[in-house]
Specification:
- By secondary structure, the chain is an alpha+beta fold.
- It has three domains: about 10-195, Histidine kinase-like ATPase, C-terminal domain (Heat Shock Protein 90, 2-Layer Sandwich), CATH 3.30.565; about 220-335, Ribosomal Protein S5, domain 2 (2-Layer Sandwich), CATH 3.30.230; about 370-605, formyl-coa transferase, domain 3, CATH 3.30.1540.20.
- It is built from 17 helices and 24 strands.
- Strands 5-4-3-6-2-1-7-8 form an eight-stranded mixed beta sheet, with helices on one face. Strands 9-10-13-11-12 form a five-stranded mixed beta sheet.
- Helix 5 runs antiparallel to helix 6 (about 205-210).
- Mean pLDDT is about 80; it is low at about 335-415 and about 535-540.
- Bound molecules: adenosine-5'-diphosphate and magnesium ion (MG).
- The site of adenosine-5'-diphosphate has 23 residues, from helix 2 and helix 3.
- Magnesium ion binds near residues 29, 32, 33 and 93.
Length: about 600
């Protein structure tokens, strides 16, 4: 065959392959255009995971009537004029190929009006060809509707994943932009149902709250000045954001989100810098939840690496990695991690426990010298009562019966030392002795943690189900029923044998064995609780929330008297936990009273 220049439409289709990989790529490009246009409100409407329709409407600057058609030409942009501009890109877009690419593989309608023009314009483009252009009434801003993606590229259409998967990718994307642009109100609907909305208050924390929910955000620490409204000082490198306390972790690195100059980037190096900051604070195989915004002079970043603009090149990689790692590490070291908040007690003269609260000095929960024999015996006397003279006990006394190593100061971040059960008080708390400290364990919170970790563990291998002796019908409210029906496959993976019976009724045939004698209807209510919020949180977390919720329902309650064996089994299981210090919702599972503190209160020192 002779060499020929491909027709424009074919060239565009080939190029489109690089920009438009899947529906989420379309959402990304349209969202970036809206943000570049200075929008304060952007709504994203998706049908059938984006195959049928993706519509993004913004209240940004709009496109002048005379330029609308041009916007669909390949390499047409208002954001660059020369190649030197590439050295300091301040906008998310700059390649001028997104609209052209999208329009070459879908049916696109664009409606736009700039401020000052009386009428707006509407343009339709199908497979790269403009099919109509007319003047229409329109609000200021731009609306781009993309229908029947890949209608003319059957090969691509075949490769699209399930509607659910595409939906998740889109949700992950929109929620991430909500974090990078907290001042913009973003909303996302899937098939007419609100999936996500950000409040647009300008505060990163408010956006995080919508994405992750209160329980997670409560466990996150400020990195730098996350809410600073000022632009980064020119020429400098700034790191800010929020990062999870070590008790908050995930099984993969997908919840480490990094923005460089407002652009969400997937950069292995920067991601690794965040992970590095947690060195020894997280178990191997666990990864933090982090949202990190890195700002640096645009001339330091090459964004023109790949058509999707998700990859960047940094002029000084080392400096950027170092800055990210140090900032995250500082956040972890400076702020008392949540596990020690309220984990510090003071024995008041009146004889009650008072939680010292978040402003207690970090490390106060760690007894000075865990192995000080006098202090150990002081603790031992708690068990035997006052008839023992602590001073008369030999240094090796109680301490000597412990396995070596248990004497080390308990690590407030890591696993528990071995605890000795003393008893139960108020049918709610287990009294125990640890090396150099008195420990009170909240039996409910502790059991929640134990079930949660065992559940997560089982999920990887398959959750064993315990069949009910008799199938049990459970009726839910109609909206919950709809959500539950949609999520039945997820539930099946979580060990629930539930069938839709009709209407809002479901039949429960089996439940996860580890939940024990849980009431089937309570269990179903619990797992639908988080669905009801109407959120589709980031991939993976919805199951974790469902699990946390059902574990709470299944856990032993306060008010339940436990035998010594039961307490000891529970505490053993807690010791085996990866994050024993908090329940899955972030409440402390225990408070501690260091022996030094006891000695001080008894005026022994
Ligand atoms: P790029 O964003 O790289 O410039 P696009 O193909 O995405 O390329 O868009 C082409 C041009 O169309 C943009 O440069 C911009 O001028 C205009 N445009 C696209 N979307 C919008 C929008 N939502 N609001 C205002 N202008 C837009
Ligand atoms: Mg663009």
């Amino acid at each position: 065959m002779p060499i020929r220049v491909l027709p424009e439409t074919v060239a565009a289709q080939i190029a489109a392959g690089e920009v438009v990989e899947r529906p989420a790529s379309v959402v990304k490009e349209l969202l970036e255009n809206a943000l570049d246009a200075g929008a304060t409100t952007v709504s994203v409407e998706v049908r059938e995971g984006g195959r049928r329709l993706i519509r993004v409407a913004d209240d940004g600057c709009g496109i002048p009537a005379g330029e609308v058609a041009l916007a669909f030409h390949r390499y047409s942009t208002s954001k660059l004029t020369s190649a030197t501009d590439l050295e300091a890109v301040l906008t998310l877009g700059f390649r001028g190929e997104a609209l052209a690419s999208i329009a070459s593989v879908a049916q696109v309608t664009l409606v736009t009006r700039v401020q000052g023009e009386t009428a707006g314009s509407q343009l339709r483009v199908e497979g790269g060809q403009i099919t109509s252009q007319e003047s229409v009434g329109a609000p200021q801003g731009t609306m781009v509707g993309v229908e029947n993606l890949f209608f003319n590229v059957p090969a691509r259409r075949k490769f699209l994943r399930s509607v659910g998967t595409e939906k998740r990718h889109i949700t992950a994307l929109v929620t991430r932009y909500a974090m990078a642009y907290p001042a913009v109100r973003l909303r996302l609907t899937h098939d007419g149902r609100m999936a996500f909305r950000s409040p647009g208050t300008g505060k990163l924390k408010d956006a995080l709250m919508e994405v992750y929910g209160l329980e997670t955000v409560r466990q996150m620490l400020a990195v730098g000045e996350p809410e600073s409204q000022e632009a980064a000082p020119s020429g400098a490198l700034r790191v800010r954001g929020y990062t999870g306390a070590p008790g908050l972790s995930r099984a993969n690195r997908s919840q480490i989100t990094i923005f460089v100059n407002g652009r969400w980037v997937q950069d292995r190096g920067l991601t690794y810098a965040v992970i590095q900051a947690y060195h020894t604070l997280l178990m191997t195989g666990r990864y933090p939840v982090s949202v990190i915004l890195l700002d640096l002079p645009p001339s330091e970043v090459d964004v023109n690496v790949h058509p999707t603009k998700a990859e960047i090149r940094l002029r000084d990689r080392e400096a950027a990695f170092g800055a990210v790692q140090r900032a995250v590490r500082r956040a972890l070291v400076d702020s008392a991690p949540l596990q020690t908040v309220a984990a510090v007690g003071a024995w008041t003269a009146g004889g009650g426990w008072t939680a010292a609260g978040a402003d207690a000095p970090a490390g106060a929960s760690t007894p000075g010298a865990g192995g000080e024999p006098g202090l150990h015996t002081a603790l031992a006397s708690l068990q035997h009562g006052p008839r023992f003279q602590p001073e008369l006990e030999l240094p090796g006394g109680t301490a000597g019966q412990r396995p070596a190593g248990a004497l080390e100061s308990p690590d407030s971040q890591g696993r528990l030392p071995i605890l000795r059960i003393v008893g139960q008080i108020g049918a709610a708390y287990i009294v125990a002795e640890g090396p150099g400290e008195l420990v009170l364990v909240d039996q409910h919170a502790a059991h929640e943690r134990v079930l949660y970790e065992q559940y997560l563990d089982q999920r990887e291998k398959g959750v064993p189900t315990q069949g009910l002796l008799q199938a049990m019908p459970v009726e839910l409210s109609p909206d919950r029923a709809g959500l539950l029906e949609e999520h039945l496959p997820v539930l099946a993976e979580l060990g629930f044998q539930v069938e839709h019976f009709g209407g809002a009724t479901f039949v429960v045939r089996g439940l996860p064995a580890l939940l024990g004698e849980i009431n089937p209807s309570a269990a179903l209510e619990a797992v639908t609780d988080d669905l009801e919020v109407g959120k589709q949180p980031l991939e993976g977390t919805i199951e974790e929330r469902m699990i946390a919720r059902v574990c709470k329902t299944a856990a032993v309650k306060a008010g339940q008297v436990l035998t010594l064996q039961e307490m000891s089994a529970l505490v053993r299981e807690l010791e085996a936990c990866e994050s024993p210090h908090t329940c899955p919702h972030g409440r402390p599972t225990m408070i501690r009273m260091p022996a030094v503190e006891l000695a001080k209160q008894f005026e022994r020192t």
